[in-house]
From TrEMBL:
It catalyses: orotidine 5'-phosphate + H(+) = UMP + CO2. SMART domains: OMPdecase. Keywords: Decarboxylase, Lyase, Pyrimidine biosynthesis. NCBIfam families: pyrF_sub2 (TIGR02127). GO terms for biological process: 'de novo' pyrimidine nucleobase biosynthetic process; pyrimidine nucleotide biosynthetic process. InterPro entries: Aldolase_TIM, OMPdecase_AS, OMPdecase_type-2, OMPdeCOase_dom, RibuloseP-bd_barrel. It comes from the Eukaryota. Its EC number is 4.1.1.23. Residues 17-253 form the Orotidine 5'-phosphate decarboxylase domain. One of its GO terms (molecular function) is orotidine-5'-phosphate decarboxylase activity. This is Orotidine 5'-phosphate decarboxylase.
Length: 272
């Protein structure tokens, strides 16, 4: 199945736009897990099991695994294997490099890890993102306007074709005729999201920044939905993963994910 097929099926089955971010920080793991042989994987397996009927996708953040060395790579592989078949997995590593290096990034993501989508920095242009488009069952989510305050330093620069993030949105629409792609737009920018959706009417949009970063859920749902009433993945990481540091961490994560699902569904007028 392609990323788009998995996304569509899971959104319908779980009635959800909640993307659960997997950002395992060893310092934040519950104390009772730290004595296990692989505490990161033990933690993530319980998180996944607790949210599998609530999430529309999972987004492992490569940096949090890579920082743990070989053990982190093994935990990443184990977490991916723990995610139910048919649920889309987005590897968040914001790859951006020249063509032959990009080919290796794409191979690692799609062939070695077996994920369904990746985040990619498009600022190096066509030859840097082309290798990701070679995987027609995947989806390259291109950074457009990220949630961090410093994104304004670059992505809000004015050009003779408009604000840079608008230029990137137009380019993504153009590139989508070659290979499957979407956009990454911070949930902290609801008004800009409306502008971006007007440009990229059909592309899926990954929206990090809900929860700890303060994204406005009602506005991002209303401004982000496509004409079919779908096309968004609203990511929450820390607010779900670390809802509790005790033995009830999985139950607390489930409740946090469910609370977000209800808020998002209320904003779109769906079932609660």
């Amino acid at each position: 199945m392609s990323f788009f097929e998995k996304y569509s099926d899971t959104v319908q089955r779980n009635n959800s736009f909640v993307c659960v971010g997997l950002d395992p920080d060893p310092a934040k793991l519950p104390e009772h897990l730290k004595g296990k042989s692989d505490p990161t994987l033990a933690f993530l397996r319980e998180i996944i099991d607790a949210t599998r009927d609530i999430a529309c996708a999972y987004k492992p953040n490569f940096a949090f695994f890579g920082a743990q060395g070989i053990a982190g790579w093994e935990a990443l592989q184990g977490a991916i294997q723990a995610i139910p078949n048919g649920m889309p997995i987005i590897l968040d590593f914001k790859a951006g490099d020249i063509g032959n290096t990009a080919e290796q990034y794409a191979y690692m993501a799609y062939c070695q890890l077996g994920v369904d989508a990746v985040t990619v920095n498009p600022l190096m242009g066509t030859d840097a993102i082309g290798p990701f488009f070679a995987y027609q069952n995947g989806c390259a989510f291109l950074l457009c306007l990220t949630s961090n305050p410093g994104s304004a330093d670059i992505l809000r620069l004015n050009t003779d074709q408009g604000v840079l993030y608008e230029v990137l949105a137009h380019k993504a629409v153009e590139w989508s005729q070659t290979g499957p792609c979407g956009l990454v737009v911070g949930a902290t920018h609801p008004n800009d999201l409306k502008t971006i959706r007007a440009i990229a009417t059909d592309l899926p949009i990954l929206l990090p920044g809900v929860g700890v970063q303060g994204g406005q859920t009602n506005a991002i749902v209303q401004n982000g939905l496509n004409k079919k009433g779908s096309g968004i993945l609203i990511n929450s990481s820390r607010s779900i993963l670390y809802a509790s540091s005790g033995t009830d961490f999985a139950e607390a994560a489930r409740q946090s994910a469910e609370d977000l699902r209800q808020v998002l569904n209320s904003a779109r007028g769906g079932k609660r």
